[in-house]
TrEMBL record, chain A:
GO biological process, one term: jasmonic acid mediated signaling pathway
Subunit description: Part of a SCF (SKP1-cullin-F-box) protein ligase complex.
Entry-linked InterPro entries: SKP1, SKP1-like, SKP1-like_dim_sf, SKP1/BTB/POZ_sf, Skp1_comp_dimer, Skp1_comp_POZ
Superkingdom of origin organism: Eukaryota
Protein's job: Involved in ubiquitination and subsequent proteasomal degradation of target proteins. Together with CUL1, RBX1 and a F-box protein, it forms a SCF E3 ubiquitin ligase complex. The functional specificity of this complex depends on the type of F-box protein. In the SCF complex, it serves as an adapter that links the F-box protein to CUL1.
Family designation: Belongs to the SKP1 family.
Species per Swiss-Prot/TrEMBL record: Cicer arietinum
Name of the protein in its database record: SKP1-like protein
Xref: SUPFAM superfamilies: POZ domain, Skp1 dimerisation domain-like
Pathway(s) where this gene product acts: Protein modification; protein ubiquitination
From TrEMBL, chain B:
Matches recorded under SMART domains: LRR_CC
Listed name of the protein: F-box protein SKIP19-like
Every F-box domain range: 16-63
InterPro entries with a match to the protein in the record: F-box-like_dom_sf, F-box_dom, Leu-rich_rpt_Cys-con_subtyp, LRR_dom_sf
Record gene name: LOC101502986
Origin organism lineage: Eukaryota, Viridiplantae, Streptophyta, Embryophyta, Tracheophyta
Length: 156, 256
């Protein structure tokens, strides 16, 4: 309903590095963070700074949104696009895009990235996962020993 | 689209900060997509935040107790059953899907039945300790079951009837074949067509279904997409008959 009230024709998104993207309102529909911002305005154009998203990442997200917002594309074409979209990405890219999805509050894109990341860490060791996410274990050695003892079958 | 590409060079430091700051909901979304065995053996030991997220029973909604995740070189049947019960307990009723290779028993099925009210999918692979009766009693408790995969298990006609009547929402059914002395051609087809109108995927081995049985199934299960009746020696695949059947399948595919 809010979208109908709004008369905005063009939205300018400004990434953390100053890159500028002009998009139509239907492209940002899924970005709830952006949506809540423009719902309150009554003007033709609007500029929205997104200080937590880099230009490269925003460009990819917009590309994804354009494909998925398109009514001309078939379901198969969108699936094919999704497959290629994550295929060319490094794990760092995936994590940054996941974070951007969370910041922009894009539920389906967040789930899509989470799925791609889950597929990479499934069946991997604790050490692999820590390395992948660059996480340091914050268990004290005593705590960790306790956890392992409690479930010793997991580490046989 | 305007795109002035003035990218700041990102230092390793920035990337590190970014990655470690993944919000809890984003991490939870990833963990929710992992198998129960991955949560059990690896993910929850990553750090204290992950440990806490993994306490959420929803993270244990899917449990894979299969040989791919738990090799026999490391686990005997007793440990596997213990791990399985532990994971089921952790799911606190949120379990929707479970996979058990070899070590399943009637008692374990009873344990799961009492604790997994939301179960939608179960796969039992070569569980010789599960009896025909044990299986019947189990499925009777799951009217919302959508997938039953016992592709390597023979079942009685009585069991197939109980499955068909107890689980009207079944989308996938795989079993080996019907066994018993009271079985006649197309018994299976009749039970399936009369009850399983939601079926998408049917797989059996050495069935006694005939060509007419297939046609009955195609009529009774309008949503069917996959049919595998390998080694069905009651099927007439002679040229004329086969051609007729193939045409019928083609029409059915076109219509659906």
């Amino acid at each position: 309903m809010a979208a109908e009230k709004s008369s905005i024709k063009i939205i300018t998104l400004i990434a953390a590095d100053g890159s500028v993207f002009e998009v139509e309102p239907n492209i940002v529909k899924e970005m709830k963070t952006v949506q809540s911002y423009i719902d309150e305005l009554d003007q033709n154009t609007v500029s929205i700074p997104l200080p937590n998203v880099f230009g490269n990442d925003l460009a990819m997200i917009i590309e994804y949104c354009k494909k998925h917002a398109s009514e001309e594309e078939t379901k198969e074409a969108k699936e094919e696009f999704d497959f290629e979209f994550v295929k060319r990405m490094k794990s760092d890219d995936k994590l940054r895009l996941l974070q951007a999805a969370s910041y922009l509050n894009m539920e389906s894109f967040l789930q899509f990235m989470a799925k791609a990341i889950a597929a990479e860490i499934e069946n991997q060791s604790v050490e692999f996962v820590r390395d992948y996410f660059q996480i340091e274990s914050d268990f004290t050695p005593e705590e960790e020993a306790e956890l392992r003892k409690e479930n010793e079958w997991a580490f046989k | 689209m305007l795109c002035s590409c003035i990218m700041l060079s990102r230092s390793t430091k920035t990337t590190e900060t970014t990655l470690s700051d993944l919000p809890r909901d984003a991490i939870a979304s990833i963990l929710h997509k992992l198998s129960g065995s991955m949560i059990l053996t690896s993910a929850r030991y990553v750090c204290s935040l992950w440990w806490n997220i993994c306490k959420d029973p929803r993270m244990w909604h899917s449990i894979d107790m299969d040989i791919k995740h738990f090799s026999f070189a490391r686990f005997d049947f007793v440990s596997l059953e213990k791990i399985c019960r532990y994971s089921v307990d952790k799911s606190l009723g949120y379990l929707t899907r479970i996979n058990i290779d070899y070590f399943g028993t009637d008692i374990l099925l009873q344990y799961i039945a009492a604790r997994a009210g939301q179960l939608r999918s179960i796969r039992l692979y070569k569980c010789e300790e599960i009896s025909d009766k044990g299986l019947r009693e189990f499925v009777m408790k799951f009217p919302q079951l959508e997938e039953l995969d016992i592709a390597f298990t023979n079942i009685s006609k009585e069991s197939l009837e109980v499955i068909a009547k107890s689980c009207p929402l079944l989308k996938t059914l795989k079993y080996r074949s019907l066994v018993g002395e009271d079985i006649e051609e197309n018994d299976e087809a009749l039970i399936i067509t009369n009850n399983m109108h939601e079926l998408r995927h049917l797989e059996t081995y050495g069935t006694m279904i005939t060509n007419n049985g297939i046609i009955a199934i195609l009529n009774g299960c309008p949503l069917l997409q996959y049919l595998d009746l390998r080694s069905g020696f009651h099927l007439d695949m002679s040229r004329g008959k086969f051609y007729g059947l193939a045409m019928r399948c083609y029409d059915w595919k076109e219509a659906s």
